[in-house]
Predict the structure of N-acetyl-gamma-glutamyl-phosphate reductase.
Amino acid sequence: MKVAIIGGTGYGAVELLRLLHIHPYAEVKAIISHSNAGNSLTALYPHTDGFVEGTMETFDMEVLKEQVDFAFFAAPPGVSRDLLPELAEAGIRCVDLAGDFRLKDPAVYKEWYKLDAASADLLERAVYGLPELNGEEIAGASFVANPGCYPTATLLGLLPAVHNGLIDPSSIIIDAKSGLSGAGKSLSTVTHYSEINENVKAYKLGAHKHIPEIEQVLAGVGGTQRAVTFSTQLVPMTRGILATIYADLKTDLSEVELLESYENYYHAHPFVRIRSQGEWPATKEVATSNFCDIGLHVDKRTNRLTIVSVIDNLVKGAAGQAIQNMNIMQGWEQTAGLWMLPVYP
Ligand SMILES: NC(=O)C1=CN([C@@H]2O[C@H](COP(=O)(O)OP(=O)(O)OC[C@H]3O[C@@H](n4cnc5c(N)ncnc54)[C@H](OP(=O)(O)O)[C@@H]3O)[C@@H](O)[C@H]2O)C=CC1
Ligand SMILES: CC(=O)N[C@@H](CCC(=O)OP(=O)(O)O)C(=O)O
């Protein structure tokens, strides 16, 4: 199948390219670049030498409709909102890595993204693409909103507990740390080497656009959902998210029984791995892979559950999950092109 990548010179796009190169059924036919049309990607990213042919192209709706069967949007918010609907209308199935179609309520999108939303009708038609939650819905989608990186780690950590009513949904606190590639390729003062090297920094407290996304999904799973506390921190590493999640327990299940309930919830989902009792995952154990690894701890003294969930933000948090969604939409095995050992150390 022929695919296009839009937002060609960004980190998400380059990661899509890396993974699609080994995909058994998909082939990248067009790399669309807003800033570098006419130039070769290899000139910007020498590591792609020998793997990418030709030059990047400008976005041309009519050309694209003839050229490809599937498109990935890996551009900043606002781009897919304007361009994706016409492609989808023409039968080109799409996965959007940005947040333009994740939130169902246009007013909520506007409040958190500070941009005008797509129409309510389009937002309704978009399918949120977390395969471990709603694979059947994804299979029938014409376009999928790929979850945010932090929501992916957070929701996979919480789904079994919320679905089975094991925790008090009003008590959830998410403390999440991310590597710098989560911020994309553009340099800012915060991501400058001398600012973040040997440093850890909290940011966007109470204001992160992933807050309404997490709450929207949890409300759908648990029936009712109160506001969550969600804190984000930058750590001086390139890839990876570690979310430590705390919630009050509403069950007498032991730690081993809780781990079993997590194993059961994810038994048909190859990309989620549950650690044994007393073991908690680290970001390096999933680096460059599409895995989400989860460990639990029950604190008997406080009656709280601690969940540790790790992903690679560029893979399960972005490009890998987008390909997993494409696989499901196309009726292929969801592991196609994604079944690989993490790079270690
Ligand atoms: N980095 C991550 O870990 C994750 C990122 N995402 C989301 O995926 C999307 C891509 O992220 P990422 O690759 O990291 O971001 P980058 O900033 O690295 O890349 C985004 C790319 O989009 C293109 N672009 C920029 N402005 C415009 C514009 N006005 N119109 C069209 N294209 C534009 C540029 O490429 P070009 O000029 O070549 O077109 C740019 O390099 C974002 O929406 C991001 O929020 C989601 C989950 C995780
Ligand atoms: C480290 C870092 O800066 N991370 C980004 C994550 C952005 C992202 O990927 O979010 P969307 O997909 O929802 O656009 C942030 O916190 O804003």
About this structure: The radius of gyration is 20 Å. The domain at 2-125 is CATH 3.40.50.720 (Rossmann fold). The longest strand covers residues 241-248.
